[in-house]
Each structure stands twice: as C-alpha cells, then as structure tokens.
Amino acid sequence: MAVLILAEIDPTDPWFAQLITKLKNRKADLDLRVWPECGKPEEIEIVLAWLPPLGVMQTFPNLKLIISLGASVDRILVDPDLPNHIPIVRLVSEGKTWQMAEYVTLAVLLFQRRFMEYQALQRSRRWKYLPVLDARVFTVGILGLGVLGLTVAKKLAAIGFAVRGWSRSPKAIAGVECFHGREQFKLFLRTCQAIVCLLPLTPETEGILCHDTFSALPTGAYLINVGRGKHLVEADLLSALDSGQIAGACLDVFDTEPLPNDHPFWSHPHIIVTPHIAAPGMPEEVVDPILDTINCSREGRPLEYVIDRNRGY
Q1: What pLDDT is stored for residue 91 in this prediction?
Q2: Integer angstrom CA distances of residue 243 from 112, 115, 209, 236
Q3: Could you identify which of 38, 188, 201, 279 might form a hypothetical disulfide with 99, taking C-beta atoms 3.0 to 4.6 angstroms apart as the criterion?
Q4: Are residues 124 and 33 in the same domain?
Q5: DSSP 104-122
Q6: Which residues contact 256 (CB under 8 A, 6 or more apart)?
Q7: Are residues 117 and 75 in the same domain?
Q8: Number of domains in the chain
C-alpha cells in the first residue's frame, strides 16, 4: 500500500524535495507518491498532508491514516468530505518546537528593547536614547499552552521575562502564572506588555485577536501572532495600531497567504511581516516521526498525538 504526499504546493519546493529524498533513503521499499500523481486511488493507505486540496481524501477508499505535516490541522478539518473514521496525527518534533521558541524570543526582544523604534531613528539619522522596561517586569502572555506554547513560555521565563499563560483548561507550569477559561481571559491580559498567540484554530478561537482583546491590554502593548491568520481580526489590529493601543505587531500567519501585494500590513511602520516561516521544522528531523507513525498504524499499535476532531486539536 502507498503513502501519498498531499500538498497544494510545488512538490519541487526545497523543503519537500529534501523530505522525499530522506524518506526514500531511510526506507527504500516505501511506496511514496506525490499528488497529483497518485496512481490507483485504492492503493493509497496513508496521506502526509500539507494544505491539502478539499475533497481529495474521500477518493481513497482504503485510507487508514492522515499525518499532518503542519502544526495545525484546521485546513484538514475544514474539508466537508473528510472521512470521519480516519485518525489524524500531528507531527511533533524538537526542531520545530525550538524554531518556534527562537522566533518568539527574537520578536519579544525586538519589542522589549524597542528595535523597531531605533530603526526608525536610524532612518532619520537621529541619535536618541529610548527607555526600556527590564525583562523582569516586561510581562509576556502566551495564548495556548500546548507543546509549542509550553516551550516558548519556559524559554522566555528562563531568560528572565515575567510570563503568563492562558489555555482552555487549567495548567501548572513552574515560573509561569497560568490562567484558563473565558472567565479568566481579561484578567490574564490585564498586565501583558506583549501577547503571543499559539492557539489552535477552532470556532472558539477564531477572531480572538480583536478589539475587545486589544482593549483589555495595557496601552502600548505588542502582538506576536504565530498561530493562524484567522485568529486575527485585521481591521481591529490596524485601528489599535493607529490609536496607539497596540504599539507594534509581528505577524507570521495571515488570513490570505501569500499576503496580497496591496495589503496594508506590508507598508505599515509598526508591523513586522514574515512569510509563515516561524517554525517550518527540519526535513531530517521529521523523517523518524513519520516512519514511526506509519509503522504504528500498519502494526496496529497505539498512535501518538491523535487529533480530537471535536476540539480541533
């Protein structure tokens, strides 16, 4: 039975080219195919999915497993024709986790040390000192305390930042002040100088980065969104930036990707745009988890990191 890479991108992309090569090198007998060259649909047993086109997976009558190559599975779950009985597994790798921690730490430090403002001063050839808050009183709030959020929170706490975390259910993390549930959300936001969105995208979290959220933050707070584009109400962010309620934003995910050329985010002086590169993972590091998951499925052993479809993560 065959394994299919189902991705709505150019399969010659360097990341995917490396992944394909490394999978074949590690398991020479693996029948690996790349969409749209699927062969006979009944031969597809496992799908490796990255932004999969809608409606395709229902055409594989013997599909037994979907492995998400991305951190989030919302693009998979949104497919109305997705077979209900197929388990969906999310890949978790140390490399992806640490890449996310690096990205967020860099963004937090850029804001805490006011580098965007210093760049503006440089462009105008002005030599000026800007006061900064010590990291110990610069509170960073992490929305979402899953594998990625937990690592980010611990990393920031380890270098001296005051860290708060908010999640759906109660958590206890050393060095992190934890909040949970909608009833504690605004209490969580009250003293955050920066917030980092690492939530899964669900009906409950879509649009959570909105006017009400920004208004509950201290004036001049910062936003880092590395969750999903639909977490953010873009017009509300622009209004909050114009009013000064939000001082700056670092955005790696967007409602429409690639970001349209005429989008106001490109030229906004208080927004950093990166093209969904916060934590791509390393092909050599995901090969073992992929092959282990394939073997577990074929041998009938329990699968790790199975998505709860009702929760969306």
Answers
A1: 87
A2: 20, 20, 16, 11
A3: 279
A4: no
A5: HHHHHHHHHTTHHHHHHHH
A6: 229, 263
A7: no
A8: 2
Closest by CA position to 189, among listed 161, 166, 173, 156: 166
Mean pLDDT of the 181-191 span: 98
Pair 207, 236: CB distance under 8 Å: no
Per-residue model confidence (pLDDT) at position 139: 99
Nearest to 71 by CA among 198, 223, 252, 241: 198
Q: Give the DSSP per-residue string, 41-87.
A: GGGEEEEEEESPPTTSGGG-TT--EEEESSS--HHHHT-TT--TTS-
Whether 180 is in a domain gets the answer yes
pLDDT computed for residue 25 by the predictor:
93
pLDDT at 282: 87
Residue type, position 296, single letter: C
Helix (H, G, I), strand (E, B) or coil at 149: helix
Catalytic residues, which ones?
228, 276
> The domain containing residue 132 runs over which residues?
94-273
Same domain (yes/no): 38, 22: yes
In the chain, the largest separation of any two C-alpha atoms, in whole Å, equals 68
Q: Higher pLDDT residue, 70 or 239?
A: 239
pTM of structure: 0.90
Please indicate, yes or no, whether residues 59 and 139 belong to a single structural domain of this protein.
no
Domain shared by 147 and 116, yes or no: yes
Tell me: do 77 and 36 sit in the same domain: yes
- 132 close to 110: Cβ distance less than 8 angstroms: no
CATH code of the domain containing 290: 3.40.50.720
**Cβ neighbours for 262, distance < 8 A, ≥ 6 positions apart:** none
Preceding peptide of 131 cis, ω within 30°: no
80 and 125 assigned to the same domain: no
Burial class of 118 by CB neighbour count within 10 A (0 to 12, 13 to 18, 19+)? middle
Peptide bond preceding 258: is omega within 30 degrees of 0, i.e. cis? yes
